[in-house]
Design goal:
The complex is a heterodimer. By secondary structure, chain A is an alpha/beta fold. Chain A is built from 16 helices and 21 strands. Classes of the chains: A alpha/beta, B alpha+beta. The complex binds flavin-adenine dinucleotide. The site of flavin-adenine dinucleotide has 40 residues of chain A, from helix 1, strand 16 and helix 15.
């Protein structure tokens, strides 16, 4: 007999789990089907060398939405919170540091400017996230939509006239110009530039990179943290919340296709051939995979297919994992410092120059990096006295000219190690083993098209009312019964829980006839 | 400058050499990049060839696509609004296709040449849309306008002409059927289709045998009144037949800029072509929505008093004018119906069959403009629809 559920969720990424817990709490019978052996998707902890474990996808926790934590009743334990970001100096030496509110290691003027800048960014980020945490209204839609739109507009008005003008100016601006207007320190500028472009096909001079910077700030989200036991801990907390409310979460259950009959979704078919019936299927897989691989283009109208095909989702971020037999002795940095967030970003121009080759299908000759050594705070990640280093490396374009062959990977790995050694002298001598995940590897491991951080590029044409594409901007899609609930849906990627939670709420609203 | 050359100027069809010999008035225009004749000697007389004898119209420039491959049937079915699974090999289906908003991109005829092989003919070019629609289908879409020469052979003696040419087999063809026949050692396709609302055929053949076919056809038609006709004559016949013309009676949705200027098939009187029994086709959601909420426009066929064609006229609900409820898109005095006929678009609240509407007609008499409010009665179906159009086998002439 075919099992039947109120809702089937394809994928137990953290968003799928957030959706499951929310729906189950509302009394729905929910099953989550995850292809991998463990839950979490790119929010996962796993071994990469014997005895060494790492957050294999996302490494920093900073965007988990308070509303999601509250609704799910979760508060993942942290190994460290309130971490600073250090912009490393070449060859070691005093770094520039900044946190959500303060900057140090810069001149007095920059310190003051940073405090003002950070406050402004926080205010604007809050405003943006007030929009991002709602199901986007449909301009020209029903009266409920108009009320929502009005509320957004009023929210913007409440900023005051000057702020509003500033907000609208900044949202289209590029971060390069903004940091040059505000600061004198190259290192501080560079760090803020890198923050804005992580996970995007963009350099600091690309338009709308202030918007991505505001996005990253996550509104009222937490300051920078490392979950205890790696990012898998966040997924596990959500897993527990989902199971506690009665959701059935199954790993090792790859969905082969989403079944469509008579123009609507009727369930899913597992790779093994079993079918599970449901008139509501939420896909935590990215939009392109969902449309083209799981449902099939022919089940959508052609105009929507064209838009889905044109969703940009080619990742640029690689992930480097190193097993270390000890910490390097870096001049100017103590162990506490090495436990902070370490950036390799010499200058805004260097970040931009690192991006240039990616436009033409080549990897950066001098990549920029976001480095974490979580084992400084968390002994569970490596054997005693040993450490793990995890780095987000840009730029490594998904569609590398000639493809990501082993030789190409070797060359890029060497490039990364040379760069790391320049900023963390002595590191190479400490390396026991390593693993480099290019966007192609990330795609393979996590099922995300293009290995893209956000499942779909976070850019104005794929944001808010048009994310990921017109027709699917409110979680529902043109195909009855099919919903998106992952990073590719509104508001976007990062470990936020917002997409999954919002998608579930849209379904609950629909069922309540609201 | 590199040696690369781009073909410039107008193309000519494979029948051009023969048409130029027949031409007496030197009136040509461009149709989709090709040189075609407005008329060859006199469009009125050419028109009467359609209604009284055999008229030959060169429709080579008509857009033609070949759609083939394992998924061709499913592809075509998703593309258009009607149920194409019920169109067997050897049939031609008139069909309309829409964008996701249920707005008409174009209409045309789809020839099922084989189990997995179709030809789509339309007024406009649509390669982009057809390729976009191909995502997810194992199907090959090829533009074959230049590879297929085509003639419309229309009129009461058209069968007699083909019969004399040795193509009597086409006598078995019912309207909208097609067959392959041998001609000059190659296979050509003849369908019982046309744009005139009369007995008639269309011939689809390789360009290499085009001139030879023309010569044999005209030789055979000497005693059946064969005439080459230009687009002016055809235009009159198609209005009488009540057929719509893209860019005249509706705007192809992919060329519209202003919202509200496009039309749905329901608004063009094509509800019979929309099959909501099909679970999926382009525009289905929007059309189902329109069915619930109501349409904005309605296509009307008008029988207008007097004999002055209501060209470009506004349509009113009241004889004194007042609020305009629509406009005429095609209009003509129909010699064969002895009727002043028009096609138009009105606000969907108006224009039920039998209603009286009003059109204001402007016309000139010796330079002086005159305006006349004429009663326009909404009629059902085509203006010209003789039994011979359907009779199979065709009657003798
Ligand atoms: C290199 C890199 C570094 C990042 N760093 C950070 C960071 O530091 N901080 C941060 O907040 N964010 C970071 N991100 C972004 C973040 O990881 C993602 O945006 C987020 O994890 C997406 O979550 P999700 O639940 O929407 O989707 P995913 O985590 O991608 O989960 C989708 C799930 O669906 C499953 N699935 C797909 N297809 C099927 C199928 N057919 N059947 C069954 N299951 C299926 C997959 O296996 C997967 O488990 C990073 C991303 C990358 C690529």
């Amino acid at each position: 007999m075919t099992e039947r559920f109120d809702a089937v969720i394809v994928g137990a990424g953290h968003n799928g789990l957030a959706a499951a817990a929310t729906l189950a709490k509302a009394g729905q019978r929910v099953v989550v089907l995850e292809a991998a052996a463990q839950v979490g998707g790119a929010s996962v902890t796993r071994e990469f060398a014997e005895g060494y474990v790492v957050s294999a996808g996302a490494q920093w926790l900073y965007q988990l939405q308070p509303a999601v934590k509250k609704a799910l009743g979760i508060d993942p334990p942290l190994a460290a919170g309130r971490l600073d970001t250090l912009v490393l100096a070449e060859g070691g030496g005093e770094p520039v540091r900044y946190s959500a509110a303060r900057a140090e290691g810069v001149g007095e003027a920059d310190r003051r400017a940073y405090a003002v800048w950070a406050k402004r960014m926080r205010r604007f980020s809050r405003l943006l996230w007030r929009w991002l945490n709602r199901v986007p209204p449909r301009p020209g839609g029903e009266s409920r939509d108009s009320r929502r739109l009005l509320r957004m507009a009023v929210g913007t008005r409440l900023l005051g006239k000057r702020d509003m003008r500033e907000f609208l100016r900044l949202i289209g601006a590029n971060v390069y110009d903004d940091v040059h207007e505000c600061f004198a320190s190259e290192a501080l500028r560079a760090g803020l530039c890198l923050d804005a472009v992580l996970g995007s096909h963009a350099g600091p001079r690309s338009p709308n990179t202030v918007m991505t910077s505001l996005y990253r700030r996550g509104g009222d989200a937490d300051p920078l943290a490392l979950p205890a036991g790696g990012m898998g801990a966040v997924a596990n907390a959500m897993l527990k919340a989902a199971r506690d409310t009665g959701a059935d979460v199954r790993t090792g259950s790859r969905v082969g296709r989403i079944v469509v009959a008579n123009g609507r979704v009727t369930g899913v078919e597992l790779a093994g051939g079993d079918t599970i019936a449901s008139y509501t299927v939420l896909s935590n897989a990215d939009p392109k995979r969902t449309v083209f691989d799981l449902v099939g283009a022919r089940n959508f109208e052609a105009g929507f297919v064209r838009r889905a095909a044109n969703i940009r989702a080619a990742g640029n971020a690689a992930k480097l994992h190193l097993a270390l037999d000890g910490l390097p002795d870096v001049p100017g940095l103590d162990t506490g410092d090495l436990g902070q967030r370490l950036l390799i970003a010499p200058s805004p121009d260097a970040v931009e120059r690192a991006f240039n080759p990616a436009k033409y299908g080549e990897f950066s000759a001098e990549p920029v990096m976001d480095v974490s050594i979580p084992s400084v705070h968390d002994e569970t990640l490596a054997p005693e006295g040993s450490h793990v280093l995890s780095a987000i490396v840009q730029y490594a374009p998904y569609a590398l000219n000639g493809g990501w062959s082993n030789a190409a990977k070797e060359r890029f790995l060497e490039t990364c190690l040379v760069t790391l050694e320049r900023y963390l002298p002595g590191l190479r001598a400490r390396i026991v083993e390593g693993e480099l995940l290019t966007p192609v590897d990330l795609e393979r491991e996590f099922g995300m098209t293009g290995g893209h951080w956000h499942h779909a590029e976070l850019a104005p044409d794929q944001f808010l009312f048009t994310r990921p594409a017109v027709g699917a901007e409110r979680y529902g899609t043109p195909l009855d019964g099919l919903w998106l609930c992952g990073a590719g849906a509104h508001p976007g990627g990062g470990v936020t829980g917002a997409a999954g939670y919002n998608a579930a709420r849209s379904i609950i609203d629909r069922d309540a006839g609201r | 400058m590199s040696g690369r050359q781009v073909a410039q100027g107008r193309l000519v069809t494979p029948f051009y050499s023969r048409q130029r010999e027949l031409d007496t008035v030197n009136r040509w225009h461009e149709w989709k990049g090709y040189t075609v004749a407005d008329e060859f000697y006199c469009s009125e007389l050419e028109y009467f060839a359609i209604r009284n004898a055999t008229a030959v119209f060169d429709l080579t420039p008509m857009t033609k696509y070949r759609i083939s491959g394992p998924d061709a049937p499913a592809y075509v079915d998703r593309l258009v609004t009607r149920d194409m699974t019920r169109v067997p090999v050897g049939r031609v289906a008139y069909a309309v296709w829409c964008n996701d908003s249920g707005q008409v991109i174009d209409d045309g005829t789809i020839f099922r040449l084989g189990e997995l092989d179709y030809r789509l003919c339309s007024q406009e070019r649509h390669l982009d849309w057809l390729l976009t629609s191909a995502a997810g289908f194992d199907v090959d879409v090829a533009h074959e306008t230049a590879d297929v020469a085509a003639l419309a052979i229309q009129g009461p003696t058209s069968y007699a002409t083909l019969d004399r040419m040795g193509l009597s087999a086409v006598g078995h063809l019912k309207p909208f059927n097609l067959m392959e026949v041998d001609f000059a050692g190659t296979s050509i396709v003849i369908s019982r289709t046309g744009f005139t609302g009369d007995l008639g055929y269309e011939v689809w053949l390789p360009p290499q045998v085009a001139e030879r076919f023309w010569d044999e056809l005209f030789a055979a038609g000497r005693l059946t009144g064969i005439r080459a006709i230009g687009t002016d004559a055809l235009e009159l016949a198609r209005i009488e037949a009540g057929y719509l013309m893209a860019d005249i009676d509706f705007l192809p949705a992919d060329t519209a800029i202003r919202p509200g200027r496009t039309r749905s098939p329901l608004e063009l009187g094509m509800e019979w072509l929309v099959d909501f029994g099909k679970p999926m086709f382009n525009g289905r959601r929007a059309l189902a929505d329109e069915l619930r909420k109501g349409s904005r426009w309605r296509l009307v066929r008008l029988d207008i008093e007097g004999n002055k064609p209501a060209k470009d006229a506004y349509i009113f609900a009241k004889p004194k004018g007042g609020e305009q409820i629509g406009f005429v898109t095609s209009a003509a005095w129909s010699p064969v119906c002895k009727q002043n006929v028009a096609l138009g678009t009105v606000n969907a609240r108006y224009g039920a069959v039998g209603d009286s509407l009003w059109v204001d007609i402007y016309y000139q008499r010796e330079l002086h403009w005159t305006r006349k409010m004429a009663r326009a009665t909404v009629v059902d179906g085509p203006f010209w629809d003789p039994p011979r159009r359907r009779a199979t086998p065709p009657g003798p002439y």
